[in-house]
Amino acid sequence: MDTVTPGKLNHFLCPMICVRKVQNKVIVAISDALSNRSCNRPIPSKHFLSNKNCWAPILTRRRLEPIGSRFLSCYRNSRLLILQSANRTGLEKHKVRILKQKMELLGINCHDSCIPGNYSNLFCPKCKGGRSIERSLSVHIVEDADFAMWRCYRTCCGWAGQAFADGRVTNEGMNIIFKVSSPRQITAEGIILEPIGEKLIAYFGDRMISEETLRRNSVMQMAGNQGIIAFTYRRNGVLIGCKYRTMEKNFWQDKGTEKWLYGLDDINEATEIVIVEGEIDKLSVEEAGFRNCVSVPGGAPQIVSTKDLPSWEMDKAYQYLWNCKEYLDKVSRIILATDGDVCGQALAEELARRLGKERCWLVQWPKKDHSSCFKDANEVLKCLGPNALREVIETAELYQVCTINQLI
């Protein structure tokens, strides 16, 4: 023991382990002892590997015996963990291969960057990325590789689906909102949210939405990730759902919760309300002075259905309207401020069919240039300001009059 030099790694032949392969591994056990897991008295961190006195209690045969025997146990456990990890990795790779094969059958060309836990932007096989040929299809394989999901974020496409690594059938279609049959209650702690940070406050600031508006609407962020916005859906102040959005405009919703209008508490006593197509538009309308505004939770349809209205039990795509029926029944005037594109117009028609066209008004988005109009509330807010957005909402026309004018 005279060769022990403070401040250096010292190698010894363990008296309990005489196998050459592991004789130097006793260093691990000694380090373990120094971290207070095998030494009875606490050792200050400032003495770690630097104070000669702190070595004395462990460099005896009495101390090395339990350390050596415990090391053999740790060594066996480590080998077992390595084997288990290798098995899990092999199973995960197998499931990823299955998922990619299923998606490729639908025309989704997955590449090597499509790995569990990541989001990949690919070309949508349905809309081909539109005129701009953008990578509009967001593909996500969950971390355990049990299933993959995708959605095209071009408004006029909305193709979405899920593929499973087991025998379950692949789901795919237009504007699917994934949900499970049994709703559950959630809490901010359960879904791990935290107050919105400076990065996202700046992001919203660029869109003319103030920090005060964000706080009042309980806009949060996913814990540990300042790039993921969490729009919390609340009823009577209680968290009932959550929708996530990245700064790259990828969306997903918390699974297993019923669908509601976003901002429900703001129309609790209202007789006139504004309905918009997205959470950011709801915040934008508030910046223009209207708090009595709600947003639909999902995307817009591509076209207006030619079928008769289904019963409320079968009206799955618009279940959020039926869930909010007691709020909407009290309203005498509804201003529809959906997006100005074809899909937004289709959504306005579907909402008016269900809410009653006689009590609906429709906003007319102002001209951007000689050939196009502004798309939505946030675009008007950013480009023209809150007063202009307020005027657009206040001058909305009776829905039936608008539709007649469009036909002329």
Automatic annotation (TrEMBL):
| InterPro entries listed in its UniProt record | TOPRIM_DnaG/twinkle, TOPRIM_dom, Twinkle-like
Domain Toprim as annotated: residue spans:
271-360
Pfam families in UniProt: Toprim_4 (PF13662)
What name does the UniProt record give this protein? Toprim domain-containing protein
Which species? Hevea brasiliensis
